[in-house]
Design a protein that fits this description.
Blueprint: E1 24-29, H1 33-49, E2 57-62, H2 68-77, E3 83-91, H3 97-116, E4 120-127, H4 130-135, E5 137-139, E6 142-143, H5 144-156
Parallel strand pairs: 1-2, 1-3, 3-4
Antiparallel strand pairs: 5-6
Helix pairs in contact: 1-5, 2-3
Length: 157
């Protein structure tokens, strides 16, 4: 995807009465909280504007992206939760740590979705630098939190 050509926040999803009944779990990494909390807030705002009731949104904070699959699993195992959004941000550093965390996070989140048979959305930024992360969490490329929330609602629809 050529993100330099896209604003991730542009959506054509309309509010739907079905969404008022949906119960959503959001797992959020506290690492890079400037980025992840911006994505969380945008996701919650989008869900509410789309018809999801605020009382039907459960938030689970975790220390970092590596812990997101576990939090997603806990949320998905709750029979009252219809779908899960995971939000995190891993920024490339000087070591291979970025590769290990990104891969484990992506694979773990995918596995939770497949095993739970519920939509579990990957809203984790994996960027080269902080500037790219900011551009995708409320900057010139929109907000990945909105994209993740939209994806979940489309899957539930």
């Amino acid at each position: 995807m050529a993100t330099h050509l896209k604003n991730l926040s542009k959506t054509n999803l309309k509010s739907n009465s079905l969404f008022a009944k949906c119960k959503i779990g959001i797992a959020v990494s506290e690492w890079n909280r400037e980025i992840t909390f911006s994505m969380r807030d945008a996701a919650i705002d989008f869900l509410k504007k789309s018809g999801v009731k605020e009382k039907n949104i459960s938030i689970k904070n975790v220390p970092g992206a590596f812990e997101l699959p576990f939090a997603a699993q806990q949320l998905a195992n709750n029979k009252k939760i219809d779908g899960v959004i995971t939000l995190g941000c891993v920024i490339q550093g000087e070591t291979k740590h970025f590769d290990f965390i990104s891969q484990a996070c992506a694979n773990g989140i995918m596995k939770v979705g497949l095993e739970s048979k519920k939509p579990v959305i990957f809203g984790v930024l994996t960027t080269d630098n902080l500037s790219q992360a900011k551009a995708r969490s409320g900057g010139k490329h929109g907000n990945k939190g909105i994209e993740a929330a939209e994806t979940l609602l489309k899957m539930l629809k």
